[in-house]
Every structure is written in structure tokens, then in C-alpha cells.
Amino acid sequence: RENEMMKPTGEHCDREISPLWTGRVWSTPTRTILPNEDDDSEGDSTIIGVSVGAGWQPRRDLTASLAVGAERAEFDDSDAQSRTGFTFSGGLAGPLGERTRGSLTATRQFDVTSDAEDSSVATVTQVNATLDRLLARDLSGSARIGAAVIDYQGADQTDYVLDTGIGLAYALGDNLTLTSGVTYAHRLSNVDDDVHEFVATVGLTLAF
């Protein structure tokens, strides 16, 4: 049985432990191109991750998952130091009434970055909570709040991000949906000034 909160990319092997439990082992190679500000060339990097996890689904509408692993970041540039670290991911999703569904996720992973002067990779630990509610037959709403800690490896820099958002989706037909949303993020850093970001979006989603 496929747990909806365990959807890794890359090579994976599944094992149904019982009708309620699913085990999974997977690897996630990622290739990233970063600009080199010194000579305008591109520096390539590869992150290879291996994780072991399990999913629990006692009911069709209730799922939980947990995975632990490790990632290693390798850089073609000899000046960039390789990094290895512990990673994890976990989540819980289920109904909070007849019209409302909630989810809670937590992750820790590597992220290749050029945001810090003396670091090429950061460890990102984040927690997100989401509520989805059916407001009417064709109208649904969502609300999300999250927090993240970004630790730049090899540099004396740590960023903290707090963000929240709300959205609406209105079904115009079987395959067409009108969506709108607003998000706000506040980024704090021990080396840079605070950054506030507000984004509003409106769009159409067409399903084939």
C-alpha cells in the first residue's frame, strides 16, 4: 500500500511489512549548477542521499511517515569542500472534521547554495503545518505556516525563515480551476539585514 506522504524521487525499493505498514529504501542523486562569480563560469555539484523510512496508514484518509538517512555534497570545484550530514523527514496527515484536512511535516536536508560567501552548501531544517477546508461545493481554502533554520556549512552564518500563506481555489469546471493566494515571509540572519517578502498570485489550473 502506497503511503501518500512517502514520495521520494530516484531509485527506491518498497516492502509491504503489513496491511498498515510500508517500508522503503531509496537514493536521491541531484545535480546542481551554480554560477561562479569570479570568472562567470559554472560550477557543478552533486548531492547523493540514502534514506530508510516507513509509512503507516491505518485508514484511507490517515497517513504517517518517517525516514532517516544521510547526504553527501560533492563539488567539481577543488576549492569547495565536500560535506556529509544526517537527514530526516516525517509527516502526519488526516481529517480534522468532515470538511477540513490537516498535515504536519518536518524535514532536514542539504541544499546547494550561493547565498553565503564562504559556503557552498547549507543544512535546511524546516517544519510546516497546513490546513485545507472545503468552503462550498466548488470552493476550497487553505492556510499554511512554516519555520526553517538554514545553517551554512563552513561559514559563520545562520538564517531563520518564518512564513505563512492562505489560498483559495474555485472549480470553474471539471478540468479548470481558478486559484489565488498570498504569502508572507520574514527572513532573519546573524550577518545580513532582515528581509520581508510579500507575494500575491492569481492563476488558472488546467487538468488534462
Relevant terms:
208 residues; mainly beta; twelve-stranded antiparallel β-sheet; disordered N terminus
Give a description of the structure.
By secondary structure, the chain is mainly beta. The protein is built from no helices and 12 strands. It is 0% helix and 70% strand. Strands 1, 2, 3, 4, 5, 6, 7, 8, 9, 10, 11 and 12 form a 12-stranded antiparallel beta sheet that branches. The radius of gyration is 20 Å and the shape is globular.
Topology:
Blueprint: E1 11-16, E2 21-27, E3 30-35, E4 42-59, E5 62-75, E6 83-95, E7 100-112, E8 121-134, E9 139-152, E10 158-171, E11 176-189, E12 195-206
Antiparallel strand pairs: 1-2, 2-4, 3-4, 4-5, 5-6, 6-7, 7-8, 8-9, 9-10, 10-11, 11-12
The number of helical segments is 0
Q: Which structural class best describes the helix and strand composition?
A: mainly beta
Fraction in helix: under 10%
Radius of gyration from the alpha-carbon trace, in angstroms: 20 Å
Beta-strand residue fraction: over 45%
Low-confidence stretches: 1-8, 37-42
Please tally the β strands and state the result: 12
| Multimer state | single chain
Q: Quick one: overall form?
A: globular
The average pLDDT value, as a whole number, equals: 82
Sketch the topology as an H/E string, one letter per element: EEEEEEEEEEEE
N→C terminal distance: 26 Å
Largest sheet: 12 strands, antiparallel
Q: How do you describe this structure in short?
A:
The chain has 208 residues and is mainly beta.
